[in-house]
Specification:
With 373 residues, the chain is an alpha/beta fold. The chain is 45% helix and 15% strand.
Length: 373
């Protein structure tokens, strides 16, 4: 009986073996099927960790208002899109735009009007904005209350300081015209960026131009209180400028549309999360930063962005990252006159076709937005 049972068992195994082998063979292609990653690199189901490497250049050091980037990395939003995003510090908006155009970075954050100037000088290597997360510009003139400059008209005859390539300094003639000051009535003092706030505090200059998100935290770190500081925002004085945009080389954009779309989907999830819980966003930046990062300064920087740059009535209509074409056209013409370039058509400045649908980048309701603590 035992031998009979053994023979029957072996027979059943032999009969079943071809079916099992056939089943395994029919499933085999799933283990080796290749699919194109966003950048066109072949990946396999067995190699799900392979991602398209993307280098991103913010316009300066990693800062509090870069929270959407670090949140999107921490929460795996970029990874879900098949992207391995690396952030490398910037050296100014113009430098970022130049390096994006040169292919050193796939994407960057830069001033949309500086991008216009670059494109006018480099028509064969254009860069285009695909999103404008900063709906207002941080461009400003800043003075201390002790200088007795109560309003922009008080800048007449004063000494103003900024680095030579400072974007707000370049636009001073338009700002001056809007506030009723003769542009050449002031004396400009040129210095390194790191000396700007120091010279203002020492009284060597009366006011400085620059990004409020840079100047205000630096002055407060040096012991000045918010009530000691005058900030004259360009947006509040006749220059309704957009802030930094996400920029990409046109040639890269044409060849890698899905990479850019995936990046924007992930980024705006990170921005929405930052608006809902800015404290978590700030903590994400601090975690990504180095030991030299001033945590309080980065919290203050993010607070300014939350209060003045990200959230506006326009954003409620066009969504995060979108623009009003009429406003963009008007400001482009204002800036082009100062830069002595021809104002390009809006569709040469900004391409909205890579943005996620409006519902995926809607401004979170106020009830869902926690305070930064």
């Amino acid at each position: 009986m035992k031998n009979t049972w053994l023979v029957r068992s072996l027979s059943l195994i032999l009969i079943a073996a071809p079916a099992l082998l056939s089943s395994c063979q029919s499933q085999q292609p799933n283990a080796t099927t290749t699919s194109a990653a966003p950048g066109g690199t072949a990946t396999t189901a067995a190699d799900t960790t392979q991602k398209r490497s993307i280098k991103v250049n913010p316009s300066w050091l990693l800062q509090g208002d870069n929270a959407p980037l670090t949140i999107a990395i921490d929460k795996g939003y970029f990874s879900t899109e098949g992207l391995d995003v690396k952030i490398e510090r910037g050296y100014g908006s113009s430098d970022t735009i130049t390096k994006v155009a040169a292919g050193q970075f796939e994407l960057g954050f830069g001033d949309i009007y500086s991008m216009m100037e670059f494109n006018a000088k480099n028509p064969n290597d254009p860069v285009v904005a695909v999103a404008v997360p900063y709906n207002r510009s941080a461009f400003s003139i800043v003075s201390l209350k002790s200088s007795n400059i109560a309003d922009p008209k008080g800048l007449t005859g004063k000494k103003l300081g900024a680095p030579a390539g400072d974007a707000p300094r370049k636009l001073w003639p338009v700002f001056a015209e809007k506030v009723g000051v003769q542009p050449d009535s002031v004396e400009w003092i040129t210095m390194e960026p790191k000396l700007r706030e120091t010279l203002l505090i020492k009284g060597d200059i009366d006011a400085v131009s620059g990004f409020a998100t840079t100047i205000i935290p630096a002055l407060e770190k040096a012991g000045r209180k918010p009530e000691d500081i005058n900030v004259f925002y360009y947006n509040e004085n006749g220059l309704d400028l957009y802030g930094n945009a996400i920029v990409v080389k046109k040639a890269f954009l044409d060849k890698n549309p899905e990479v850019v779309k995936g990046f924007l989907r992930a980024y705006f999830k990170g921005l929405q999360d930052t608006l809902k819980d800015p404290t978590a966003g700030w903590e994400s930046v601090v975690k990504a930063g180095d030991s030299l990062m001033d945590k309080n300064a980065e919290k203050r920087r993010l607070q300014i962005a939350l209060e003045r740059l990200y959230i506006t009535p326009e954003v409620e209509k066009v969504g995060l990252g979108g623009v009003d074409p009429t406003r963009l056209e008007a400001t482009a013409k204002q800036v082009a006159g100062v830069l002595k370039i021809e104002a390009p058509p809006v569709n040469k400045i900004f391409d909205a076709s890579y943005l996620p649908p409006l519902e995926q980048r809607a401004l979170p309701p106020a009830a869902e937005r926690k305070p930064l603590i």
